[in-house]
Design a protein that fits this description.
Elements: H1 2-25, H2 31-34, E1 49-50, E2 60-62, E3 64-80, E4 85-88, E5 94-99, E6 106-107, E7 112-117, H3 120-150, H4 156-183, E8 193-197, E9 202-207, E10 214-215, E11 223-226, E12 230-238, E13 250-255, E14 262-274, E15 280-288, E16 298-315, E17 320-322, E18 325-331, E19 337-348, E20 352-357, E21 364-366, H5 369-378
Helix pairs in contact: 3-4
Length: 379
């Protein structure tokens, strides 16, 4: 009995020792030890923030408020007025034997543009000669019928038939003569050479023929002449801006080739169909041509709205043109200067400059930014 009790005690003692050893070997997780080190925020370098030794040497100006009608500037191109564009048509077919005008030439009404050798003249003159012979015979028969009717040799019906025949032959002769004139020839001196003349004065804006080329009476017109005294400016206006443009609104036109020339026009039409890819609508402006506007020139059209928009205004000397952009320097609370990009607008009286964006009304700017820039560069 004692041996059994002793064995049971040793067993319990061994189990307790084992549990103690296991407990000592168990790993406890320390959250603080396993956490990553705290992040350190490093201030990024601001390339547009500068400090100078004597900031008091640079006077400041508070941006003033400037009100002006809202403006919308869009691009477009010069096009001929379709109502003033006339195709040159030849009713006689044949081969060209001479061209006396070229694409881009200024021509006057009635000026000879080309000559055509046409067989249509021969056929037309033959038809006219046959009509003249028929009319001569019908006239003689009608004269005889009148004499016979006076002497009671024929009835009134026979006289009326002779008169009807003579009238019809006159119609046929006159029609044949008019056909010759339409072909460009005459009944007195028919010729196989036809002169094609300009129907209006203007500029040749299209040419479809060359020397020795064939001309079909129902084919493409050899030339197209446009009267460019008044032209169309066709502009693309984005869908969101279309509500601010109306038919009859005035527009200011500036040509890329002549930036100093401002022309006046009026909106004559807004196309009812949008470009599905660009989401733009075509706006047409009619502009009198002072003489230097050419078809295809790029222009900028500016529309002025009925409501005013508020922008800021600063002295023109406060704007620094650098790297193809406009900049101003504004002071910071820690007596430094920050370079801010702006979008300039119109030049204003008293050497002021409108700022469209980038600067708020009342915000201070340095009035001599060039001197500040030089000091920054020399540091």
């Amino acid at each position: 009995m004692k041996s059994k009790a002793l064995g049971s005690g040793l067993l319990l003692l061994g189990m307790a020792a084992t549990m103690a050893i296991c407990g000592c070997k168990s790993d406890k997780v320390d959250a603080a030890a396993e956490a990553p080190p705290p992040a350190k925020v490093v201030q990024d370098f601001d390339a547009n923030l500068f400090s100078v030794d004597h900031p008091e040497n640079f006077p400041l100006f508070a941006a003033a408020e400037h009100r002006a009608p809202a403006r919308l500037a869009v691009t477009g191109s010069v096009n001929p007025d379709i109502a003033r564009t006339v195709p040159v048509i030849s009713l006689a077919s044949g081969r060209i034997v001479g061209i006396y005008a070229r694409l881009g030439d200024q021509v006057k009404k009635g000026q000879t543009l080309l000559k055509i050798r046409s067989d249509d003249i021969s056929g037309g003159f033959a038809t006219y000669q046959m009509a003249v012979a028929d009319e001569t015979l019908a006239h003689a028969q009608y004269d005889r019928s009148q004499e016979l009717y006076k002497h009671g040799a024929i009835s009134l019906n026979d006289l009326q038939v002779a008169q009807d025949t003579e009238d019809k032959t006159k119609v046929a002769m006159n029609t044949a003569a008019e056909h010759l004139r339409l072909l460009g020839s005459s009944t007195d001196h028919p010729s196989g050479i036809v002169d094609i003349t300009a129907p209006i004065s203007g500029v040749i804006t299209d040419q479809e023929v060359t020397n020795a080329a064939g001309v079909q009476s129902l084919g493409t017109s050899p030339f197209t002449i446009s009267d460019l005294s008044t032209v169309w400016i066709v502009c693309d206006v984005y869908e969101n801006d279309l509500p601010s443009v109306h038919v009859g609104d005035p527009a200011e036109i500036t040509l890329n080739a002549y930036p100093g020339q401002a022309l006046k026009g009026k909106v004559s039409n807004i196309l009812a169909i949008l470009d599905p890819n660009l989401r733009t609508g075509k706006v047409r402006i009619e502009v009198p041509n002072p003489g230097f506007m050419k078809v295809g020139m790029f222009v900028t059209a500016t529309f002025r709205g009925q409501k005013d928009e508020v922008n800021s205004a600063v002295p023109a000397s406060a704007i620094l043109h650098l790297h193809d952009r406009d900049w101003v320097y504004v002071p910071t609370p820690d007596k430094k200067f920050r370079r801010v990009g702006v979008v300039g607008g119109d030049a204003l009286p008293d050497s002021m400059q409108e700022i469209k964006s980038g600067l708020q009304v009342g915000q201070q700017v340095v009035t001599n930014p060039l001197a500040l820039q030089n000091e920054i560069d020399n540091k």
